[in-house]
């Protein structure tokens, strides 16, 4: 009986692992195919792309799509602005949000509930685009680099996530530090902040991705200052020019070698733009992946 039960259990395990392996392989294919197809289109000659039938390998290799993007000198400066705003907002946002979350997580702080409710309300109610624009104008942030930083430094959602994580830490850590004479800022900087690495890495990834992909704030608040243009905004304008009915869909920004292999199309340029804007995040994500997985599991286990 034991031998038969053992064999049945082993057969079930093999069957489960096999089905699970095929299912995970299917998910990998479904997940990766759109990106690989976009990569293929970006390296394929634009005029040939119109024929269709491209899957995972270019029929006619060409770098003309990427040349069409980087032919403008503003792209490089815009990329620098995007990097600068992403790094600055991520660093300041993580530090200031975590410091505020630590304050609101202290049971002896008198106004923690009132301030917490105030931040939660901002997640449900918004004044609207026009009042927000006038607020930014009255603060003197129009056509200023700080318009990318100050409005988004503290997020209510990120605040709640970090505060929840800090509340899960043992209170004895803070009590023992205070007995030793440490102040609140010292406790936060030397004890709480290092212990919050998983959740802070997760929040940092959220902030970085949102800041890197943002272009609408540039359109609203800094479109008249070319020195503050971001990579995504320049890519949006470039893509808009290829989709315009007034432009030749086979040419872009005067890129023309006189041969069909020198032509680009909206589809091919769109694919190249997608790859250019996605690669930096893809390079950063592997370093934060293990923290990101831990951060997503926050609050799943209660003790």
Q: Can you walk me through this structure?
A:
By secondary structure, the protein is an all-alpha fold. The chain folds into 2 domains: 2-70 and 244-296, no CATH class; 74-226, MetI-like fold (Orthogonal Bundle). It is built from 13 helices and no strands. Helix 3 crosses helix 13, helix 4 (74-104) crosses helix 12 and helix 12 runs antiparallel to helix 13 (266-296). The longest helix is centred in the N-terminal third of the chain and has 41 residues, at 2-42. 25% of the residues are buried. The model is unreliable at 245-261 and 299-303 (pLDDT under 50).
Task: Characterize this entry briefly.
By secondary structure, the protein is mainly α.
User: What is the CATH H-level superfamily of the largest domain?
Assistant: MetI-like
Largest sheet: none
Task: Kindly report the CATH topology of the largest domain.
Answer: MetI-like fold
Structural class: mainly alpha
Oligomer: single chain
Terminal CA distance: 40 Å
Radius of gyration: 26 Å
- How much beta, percentage-wise? under 5%
SSE arrangement:
Blueprint lengths: L1 H41 L3 H4 L14 H7 L3 H31 L7 H13 L4 H10 L17 H12 L3 H9 L4 H12 L1 H17 L2 H6 L9 H13 L22 H31 L7
Helix pairs in contact: 1-13, 3-13, 4-7, 4-10, 4-12, 8-9, 10-13, 12-13
């Amino acid at each position: 009986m034991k031998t038969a039960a053992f064999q049945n259990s082993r057969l079930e395990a093999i069957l489960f692992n096999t089905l699970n392996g095929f299912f995970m392989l299917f998910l990998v294919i479904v997940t990766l195919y759109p990106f690989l197809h976009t990569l293929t289109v970006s390296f394929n000659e634009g005029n040939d792309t119109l024929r269709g039938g491209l899957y995972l390998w270019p029929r006619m290799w060409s770098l003309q799509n990427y040349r069409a993007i980087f032919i403008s000198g503003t792209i490089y400066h815009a990329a620098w602005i995007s990097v600068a705003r992403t790094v600055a907002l991520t660093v300041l946002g993580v530090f200031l949000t975590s410091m505020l979350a630590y304050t609101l997580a202290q049971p002896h702080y008198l106004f923690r509930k009132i301030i917490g409710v105030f931040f939660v309300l901002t997640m449900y109610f918004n004044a609207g685009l026009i009042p927000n624009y006038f607020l930014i104008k009255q603060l003197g942030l129009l056509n200023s680099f700080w318009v990318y930083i100050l409005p988004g430094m503290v997020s209510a959602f990120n605040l709640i996530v970090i505060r929840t994580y800090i509340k899960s830490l043992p209170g004895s850590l803070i009590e023992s530090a205070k007995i030793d004479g440490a102040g609140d800022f010292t406790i936060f900087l030397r004890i709480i902040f290092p212990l919050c690495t998983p959740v802070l890495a997760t929040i940092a990834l959220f902030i970085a991705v949102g800041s890197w992909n943002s272009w609408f704030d540039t359109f609203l608040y800094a479109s008249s200052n070319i020195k503050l243009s971001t990579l995504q905004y320049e890519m949006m304008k470039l893509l808009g020019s290829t989709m315009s009915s007034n432009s030749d869909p086979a040419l872009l920004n005067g890129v023309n070698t006189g041969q069909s292999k020198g032509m680009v199309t909206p589809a091919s340029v769109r694919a190249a733009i997608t790859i250019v804007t996605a690669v930096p995040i893809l390079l950063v994500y592997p370093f934060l992946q293990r923290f990101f997985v831990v951060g997503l599991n926050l609050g799943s286990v209660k003790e």
